Amino acid sequence: MTVVEENAVRDHGVGETAAAVQPADELPDVPRRIGGPTRSGVLSLTGAAASGLCTALLLFGQLAPFSGALGFMVTAYLAFLLSYAVLTGLEENGQAVRDRVMTVVLWSAATLLFVALALVVGFTAWRGREALPHANFFTQDMQAAGPLDPLTNGGIAHAMLGTLTMITIALAITVPLGLACAVYLNQIPGRFSRFVRTIVEAMTALPSIVAGLMVYATWILGLGMQKSGLAAGFAISVMMLPIVIRAADVVLRLVPGTLTEAAEALGAPRWRTVWHVVLPTARSGLATAVILGTARGIGETSPVLLTAGFTAALNADPTDGPMVSLPLAVFNFVKSPQPTMIARGFGAAAVLMALVLVLFAIARVIGGRGPGHQSKRQARRAARASRRDVERFADLHAPGLTLFDETPQDQPPAAADGDSAPQGPPAPDHESRTGGAGGNPNPAEGRVPTHEPAPDNEGSH
Prior knowledge:
There is one protein chain. This protein has 461 residues and is mainly alpha-helical. It is 66% helix and 0% strand. It has helices at 3-25, 39-63, 69-89, 94-127, 136-139, 157-187, 191-204, 208-222, 229-253, 257-265, 270-281, 283-298, 302-307, 326-334, 339-367, 376-396, 430-434, 443-446. The N and C termini lie far apart (87 Å). The relative contact order is 0.07.
């Protein structure tokens, strides 16, 4: 055997061995589980939490001169994340480790925010538990009650009415102006729209005291009007307007351009496209924009103090006399050293939070669901409209409303007046074909050519 043959045999054997070993070395592609708890994941979380706690205890108690509860919690959390990354890396690759760690960070942030919100709401309701059970707290004002009076005397009816009046005036001004400005910024691009957007973004960070001073200088000092709920509504609307415009502009940008293009392709003008296509599509997001503006304006104190004044009596007229709001009442109640006044202040704060929650629920009901999602009532309304359209189309295409009155082909046309029988088709002119009188003078030209094919008589057989 030559050297070339030995090399060929050796190469052939190596190839067969590699082909035999290759399928055994390949691992099947198993998709990585993204959601849902697993046994190893739960054990890794538990072990990492224990490791982070023990590390913080060692650093703050034995190894390092650390102190403070906040530092202890931060150190324990960082040690927990490090331990969890190490334990996860024993079973997963780098991408899975990063995914698990970021998931834990996001869940931790969400939990922290929820706990903070629960603490604020719970602490306010707990401190106001002494004033909330009394019915007079919601039906009386503080005109006949003093700091030393018990909780059975006096209430916050004047502040509740003032808040509702001011926020109603502010919404009546802000909602149409804010939505109209957002539609302008979205539908009519240009230099002026960019200038308006810049001003709106700058007014978003406007301090509330500046808005109050502007209304105080123009409405009260310049025009000579008195402090009232109307002036406070103007000041609150100045604070709410940039929030509503900015949020509504962002929502309107999310409306697909194909919807507006389809409406305009059907011949709809721009205003009808905006009214019937753009605004209904973004209705849920626009409701959220109004909620954000309301939450910003309903908690303002300094503009109300400058423009509405302060009173302890109930005033239902927003154009005459001072008026107080719930945030201003909370400020005046809490700064008192008397326990009953402090309880009234926390009770008023709890009522303010409940009022914001009610307004939020009303806005969500008005806004409805997002595009593509219908409630049961909307689905029934759409079904009724579809049935009406089907009936209308059926009436338009009924046999009695045809455009042309066509006569069936199997019936002869009606005879004219005076005719006894219908006239048939005219007889063929045989003389013109055979060269008779008035026909072709050459008889041969009138005969049928002999080379024409004979008629098909297969049907007769």
